[in-house]
Amino acid sequence: MTAKTRHSDTLARYARMAPVIPVVTIEDPALAVPLARTLAEAGLPVVEVTLRTRRALAAIEAIARDVPDVIVAAGTVHWSDQINNVVDAGAHFIVTPGMTEHLRDELAVAPIPAMPGCATVSEALSLYDHGFGIVKFFPAGPSGGVGWLKAVSAPIPFVSFCPTGGIDLKSAPDYLALSNVVCVGGSWMVPKEAVAAGDWATIGRLAREAASLR
């Protein structure tokens, strides 16, 4: 069995705080704090902010500074030189869509936990061998979904997954019922139009539904 990274227990605690991790893309950092507060009040205290916009780091910084009860992750991290940037912004952990050997090795010694992404058994084993016991399965739907996770639960029962990609309120319970799924990631509770409009009532309602899944 592999040794754990020094942050494994912390990541496990974050992953078990709620059944769903909202995956949000924020264009305007001014929306970050009310969005994070809405999600946390609805029962989703862990939020992944993707690095897909120019102001993503500012959004992470605002949440980390002004909403201390929220665990904010930096998502869509591609390169090792982004690690220090998200740490400086106040991110609690890192999420990647996939991995390279270099990125994997840098994440293993990063100052905050990481949940690297995989889409194959070989990638999952490689990540586990480097200390990552919880990994992101992405894109979950196109990569085999519930069927894939069921199939790998017997040969690699020691790897836990956070499936993300193509999951919604209807399909999430099927994933969450699996023994090797610790939580799921999704965007259905944070529709782009609702975020842009500051429609916190709609987002709060959708988030409460997601929080009640398990």
Short summary:
This protein is α/β, with parallel strands linked by helices. It has ten helices and nine strands. It has one domain: Aldolase class I (TIM Barrel, Alpha-Beta Barrel).
Alpha plus pi helix count: 10
Strand content: 15-25%
Q: Whole-number radius of gyration?
A: 16 Å
Might you state the CATH topology name?
Answer: TIM Barrel
Give the strand tally: 9
Largest sheet: 6 strands, parallel
Give the low-pLDDT segments: none
Structural class based on helices, strands and sheet pairing: alpha/beta
Mean pLDDT: 97
CATH architecture: Alpha-Beta Barrel
Write the layout of secondary structure elements.
Blueprint lengths: L7 H8 L4 E5 L7 H10 L4 E5 L5 H11 L4 E5 L7 H7 L3 E3 L5 H8 L5 E2 L1 E2 L2 H9 L4 E4 L7 H9 L6 E4 L8 H5 L7 E3 L5 H6 L2 H12 L3
Parallel strand pairs: 1-2, 1-9, 2-3, 3-4, 4-5, 6-7, 7-8
Detailed description of the structure:
The protein is α/β, with parallel strands linked by helices and 214 residues long. It has a single domain (8-211), classed as Aldolase class I (TIM Barrel), CATH 3.20.20. 40% of the residues lie in helices and 15% in strands. The chain contains ten helices and nine strands. It has helices at residues 8-15, 32-41, 56-66, 83-89, 101-108, 121-129, 145-153, 172-176, 192-197, 200-211, and strands at 20-24, 46-50, 71-75, 93-95, 114-115, 117-118, 134-137, 160-163, 184-186. The chain has a six-stranded parallel β-sheet, sandwiched between helices. Helix 7 (145-153) links the parallel strand 7 and strand 8. Helix 2 (32-41) runs parallel beside helix 10 (200-211) and helix 3 runs parallel beside helix 4 (83-89). The radius of gyration is 16 Å and the shape is globular.
